[in-house]
Amino acid sequence: xxxxxxxxxxxxxxxxxxxxxxxxxxxxxxxxxxxxxxxxxxxxxxxxxxxxxxxxxxxxxxxxxxxxxxxxxxxxxxxxxxxxxxxxxxxxxxxxxxxxxxxxxxxxxxxxxxxxxxxxxxxxxxxxxxxxxxxxxxxxxxxxxxxxxxxxxxxxxxxxxxxxxxxxxxxxxxxxxxxxxxxxxxxxxxxxxxxxxxxxxxxxxxxxxxxxxxxxxxxxxxxxxxxxxxxxxxxxxxxxxxxxxxxxxxxxxxxxxxxxxxxxxxxxxxxxxxxxxxxxxxxxxxxxxxxxxxxxxxxxxxxxxxxxxxxxxxxxxxxxxxxxxxxxxxxxxxxxxxxxxxxxxxxxxxxxxxxxxxxxxxxxxxxxxxxxxx
Length: 374
Ligand SMILES: [Zn+2]
Ligand SMILES: [Zn+2]
Description:
single chain, about 375 residues, alpha/beta, 2 domains, globular, binds zinc ion
């Protein structure tokens, strides 16, 4: 924390700049009241926020955002969920954080009272979307069911906060939740993967982070598949032992060749390609495990007999559960991989529409586009 951070933290304005979603695709910059933190909550001055594919889904189609029992359009809703900032005000009962602390955030606070929340599966909260309307269930998923981070301030529940140490920059800290999603995928697959083979299909942000986190946990070999060499090259820098361009090589045959015909223990599927699960089944060994972090837009045929005969396990994950972000942040603090390689562009809060244009059009090979808010 610098002296200027401290000074800024002491003066909290009454209103703030915030983007709101009107009709689909229509974001508008407006003024909103600065929110007040309730019990077990803090007010964060947002310093940086990254754009995610889910933001694009929300802005174009609405879901998974769900505001007051319906789609998020024309409800004065502020999207944005991959942000970090500085704690500027403490709600009742907070002694875990101090004013001036730098924090990154998880999306899902969960309700803390349903069966799934109590299991650590708060991203699958059974009370999702039941908050701050007619149902006082306490659930909060900023940028999904409550106001998010394309704004100057946000209120966050204590459970969603992650301390950001000095050696992680603001821009890098916005990537903690992405790394946490990759870590959660490895968690559900079993967690301990040193010396075991991992294929990651699809070099988007979660795929690239799955490579980095898998390698940091000792997976061997780590193989990344994709269609664009620029992204595959970033995968190599993040720890992939092998990359396969599926445009020039059959990925199943390549995995068999690299592993001497044995296949790998785990696949994390991040491409959403229609045949990805069938290919993943051909890449894992008998008893292998597949985590689906992406999905095709329509139902697809799957060779279920192969799944059963080979005792293959398939898992779906939603978000960044089980406090995985804290473990991911620990790996980043220890410099086990350089998440900054994925941060390609920076814009200001006023430039959010341009930032989305770069992200959606992959202009100049954009991967993670970050908004500097303050
Ligand atoms: Zn996201
Ligand atoms: Zn819950």
